[in-house]
Amino acid sequence: MSRKLLLEHINVPGINTLEVYRQKGGYRAVEKALKTLTPEEIVEEVKKSGLRGRGGAGFPTGMKWSFLAKPEGVARYLVCNADESEPGTFKDRYLMTYIPHALIEGMIVSSFALGAKVSYIYVRGEMMPQIRILEKAIAEAKAAGWLGKNILGTGYDLELYVQPGGGAYICGEETALLESLEGKRGNPRIKPPFPAIAGLYGCPTVVNNVESIAAVVPIINDGGDEYAKIGIGRSTGTKLISASGNLVKPGVYEIELGLPVEEFIYSDEYCGGIANGKRLKATVAGGSSVPVLPANLTLKLANGEPRLMSYESLSEGGFATGTMLGSGGFIAFDEDQCIVRNTWNFSRFYHHESCGQCSPCREGTGWMEKVLHKIEHGHGTMEDVDLLWDIQRKIEGNTICPLGDAAAWPVASAIRHFRDEFEWHIKEPVKSQSQNYGIANYATPIEKAPVAEEK
Amino acid sequence: MLKVEEQTPVVFSSELLAKFDDIKSRYPADKSKSALLPLLHLVQAEFLWVPTSAMDQVAEYLNIQPIEVYEVATFYTMYFLKPQGKYALEVCRTGPCCLVGAEKILSHLENKLGVKEGEVTADGLFSFRGVECLAACGYGPVLQISPEYTFYENLTTESVDKLIEDLKNKS
What we know:
The complex is a heterodimer of chains A (455) and B (171). Chain A has 455 residues and is an alpha/beta fold. Chain A has 19 helices and 14 strands. In chain A, strands 3-4-2-1-5 form a 5-stranded mixed sheet. In chain A, helix 5 packs across helix 6 (100-114). In chain B, 44% of the residues lie in helices and 11% in strands. Chain B contains 7 helices and 4 strands. Chain B has helices at residues 14-24, 36-47, 52-62, 66-75, 95-99, 102-113, 157-170; strands spanning 87-92, 126-131, 143-146, 150-152. In chain B, strands 2-1-3-4 form a 4-stranded mixed sheet, with helices on one face. Classes of the chains: A alpha/beta (455), B alpha+beta (171).
């Protein structure tokens, strides 16, 4: 069994209550941080831990914190990004549902480190049950003196509020989230200035994912150095992976970074293999935005070495043969799934969720959706595949926020690795309506590269 | 006015306004526009949709222009700009849920309720629509029912039938 830092007590009855959470050692990190550490020391521990943002971008959290401007007499804010909407990702929902105090404890420690007196947890509006859970937990914590005025007699004041979103994927982008929190449409801002300089209400602001903030608790309890010992290379610590699709045991798993992908998919400790005795055709390893990979490149690197669940190993080979860890939304496709149909589905998603600010994204996502719809429904031509390639290239890198890239990459990678399946849909317009292309050679094992002989 | 077929203006109860005040107190005094999204949720929970007259009153309450409310209400997908069924069913239709049968659930609902996506059943009880990822991909297919946003996981056509019957019996 691998080490669990966030989900260690997830199965303890009543762990969602303050009382049981305290019995299991909860809020120790608040006591330690507020009574024995300075804000600078906390930032230093988080830096030492090597923790990287768990929302998708993987930017080092400690470094993000150290960029926060601290002008005299200006309020600073910590905003938790709980706008979890990336298809394939549902770990934050899980954490907030079952162990809400882990997030609240992390928010108190992090707010203290950043000098925030008011902090917000921006939860996507559809998660009303989770909003109710968090509000109840915050009330419990406040009644017990963990929030409010003069916490633990240290003179530190903190108010923590939950803010519901309105149903918009784009608000997961941190500047769109801040716009939304200010009561506006979720249009991402042009950067710079970054939120660390001018964020919420123009004040210095840090925006962190739920899982990143919860990870601050074990980092403070055990020290950044201890946390950094877990994992592999620059992928330190544990990561929550949301596993979905055609798996025997889909769900949320906490893994030590560096776990072989093959073990994650097939071992009984994790997903238990592909459902209904079928074979694996492809995966999306880090949420719908990251490139889709055929089964063989999921399990092995291009050189035949095993691929690992880490930031570096998943992106090994660049987009030619690799993908990204992203938010840890791991989607498995069995041999009966159609890559063209799924790519069309994802394109519809990005078209629906584009905020409409930048032309390449607003127009391009809709255009890709239409072309993919045409191919999927048996009306495509060979030129359409090249057209799709052309459109996605013109979106990538040409928009204010990364939604454009996120819309382009699934299409690009589907064509890169599954072009034969697109062409089959075009050559067999009738057959493709009632049959699937199948697994083809997507699972053909990659041979280990021969070791060069010494001369 | 955003909609021409506006009905009689809605009236905010004192209980609702007290909830407004509580939300408004969460932000700096000059930043009360931040309360806009939560306030619209409260309005929808009360009236089951967001009529234009309610948006105008929210604008007045927050001391902002009506257009500032309209642009937000139309941007975010959760706000209903026309009346829905008493139970508005929202089924996730994004990739991972489709891998495990979400499309079948949507077409089953259409047959079962006898209305198309976005329409309301004759008895006013039900409406349904497909929505994008609800962040519960490991438990798909999933649906939620507003205004409480109660959540149902691992749906089958049988479990959907039972859910509909239960809701009918409840009413």
